Fold this sequence. Notes:
The chain is of the alpha/beta class. The protein folds into 3 domains: 3-77 and 278-420 and 455-493, Rossmann fold (3-Layer(aba) Sandwich), CATH 3.40.50; 103-271, Rossmann fold, CATH 3.40.50.10490; 497-532. It has helices at 3-13, 19-25, 29-32, 51-63, 66-74, 104-126, 149-157, 175-182, 202-216, 233-239, 265-292, 299-313, 331-343, 375-380, 401-420, 424-433, 438-447, 466-487, 498-511, 522-532; strands spanning 34-37, 40-43, 130-131, 134-135, 138-142, 166-170, 190-195, 226-230, 246-248, 318-324, 361-363, 387-392, 456-461. The strands form 3 sheets. It has a 6-stranded mixed β-sheet with strand order 1-2-13-12-10-11, sandwiched between helices. The chain is globular, with a radius of gyration of 25 Å. Bound molecules: 6-O-phosphono-beta-D-fructofuranose. The site of 6-O-phosphono-beta-D-fructofuranose (F6P) has 14 residues, from loops. 6-O-phosphono-beta-D-fructofuranose binds at residues 144-147, 196-198, 201, 204, 255-256, 341, 494, 497.
Amino acid sequence: MDYAMWEELRRIAATPPKITDLFEKDAGRAEGFSTRLGDMLFDYSKTQITDSTRDFLLSMAEAADVTGKRDAMFSGARINETEDRAVLHTLLRNLEGAPDGVDANEYAQVQRIRADMTGFVTAVRDGGFTGQGGAITDVINIGIGGSDLGPAMAVLALAPFHDGPRVHFVSNVDGADLADTLNGLNPETTLVIVASKTFTTIETMTNARSAFDWMKARVADPAAQFAAVSTAEDKTGAFGIAPERVFGFEDWVGGRYSMWGPIGLSLMIAIGPDEFTRFLDGGFAMDRHFQTAPLAQNMPVMLALVGIWHNQGCGHATRAVLPYDNRLSRLPAYLQQLEMESNGKSVAMDGSNLPVQSGPVVWGEPGTNGQHAFYQLIHQGTRTIPCEFMVAKAGHEPAFAHHHALLVANCLAQSEALMVGRSVDDARALMAAKGLEGAELERQARHRVFAGNRPSTTLVYPQLTPFVLGQIIALYEHRVFVEGVMLGINSFDQWGVELGKELANALTPILAGQENDESKDPSTRMLLAYLRG
Ligand code: F6P
């Protein structure tokens, strides 16, 4: 990417317009600065993006060859250059046939594994597969990162579609996670899924061994109640899990992009194979849109360009994801891995230092809860935090329909308040109406001023169904891809997580007193001394 374009973007952003002025000048702004896919609507009109800014952002996307790189990804090119791998998670949700460039055998293998998953899941759900004590009542997915966050987020999101055994997730190596989950479960009717792409991740393997021991105390053949999801079938065999309960996948599926395949086993158990297929269909519909819609109407592209504008142009270092959908409460955590593990890089694909900022800090909580926690800072803090709202037209609780109306009203009110703000004159009038005057009126009024002109986007969708969730997740995946291409980085490796893992491995024998701490810095030595007692 031409460095001059980033300079120009910052120059444009240096004199931001007032969003309310943009609406005054353009009666068609709401329609003109939003994009639709079927019933899904993405509104970015409450940002400072103008026609000419959008044109410039689109020219940046073209200069970065977003469409060429997109096509390369879908056709199986080895775009993950630092690991020399293809990036083909889109194949996992493609039920239509091998795309150009992808080996038909590879495609057939994906279908075979999904058929195996379906067979196993059906047996778990209808009692064809049992534990020592009878039908499976509880399933524990043991995994971390991409082997946990996706299915955990989706199982919660799709609670109204659950009709299988209860599904639990254990990820943290803190024994509290496993202990609290096992508490009250019957090992004789529990199935454990060990989900790990590599089958070496220390947290997952520690939890898996402890869960095995827990089961062994009551079950004669605990391995028979274990299944595995992994690319490392030699290691699953060594753990003792029979091959018919091992669901493999290829190294072209990155951990944080893996919930569409075998890593989604726990989700499939919760909602059943048919609804799982609808989830895949939603992702695939977004893929087709991403591949075919012109860039200016392309939802993932426009979501990415809004992100680039705020992060690189305006210099806003964070973005808040604010789903007004309680069942999406794990979505911010899921997106933290998806976005920050993908685009948290400071070296470009060619090894040179990135001349711009890496991807932003992503955080959030569902509304309306966040309103009573951190929105104060969003409205009146000194920094601007672009907000990404999302809300469904309909909830799943007809008995509480009035709750949904309140939820929607609050979501819309927040984006309006951020944009419109409250002037000091209006604040003075409010204080005068309360009977204040003079210096006290002025002082109190100033605390009630909202600067406004704070940007937000809103994604609205009909209802949180498996299909819609699939659309939302694929939307964010492609957004991350487009931002990564424009930054010129590799969004599909994660070398930044390795150093901490290596040092943790080195610290374990020191903590156990088997090695001395001489190689450690004084701070670490002091902490070790305290923790070892
Ligand atoms: O530590 C980061 C990471 O490698 C993620 O990328 C991955 O999703 C997670 O660990 C879990 O890895 P695995 O599935 O191999 O256990």
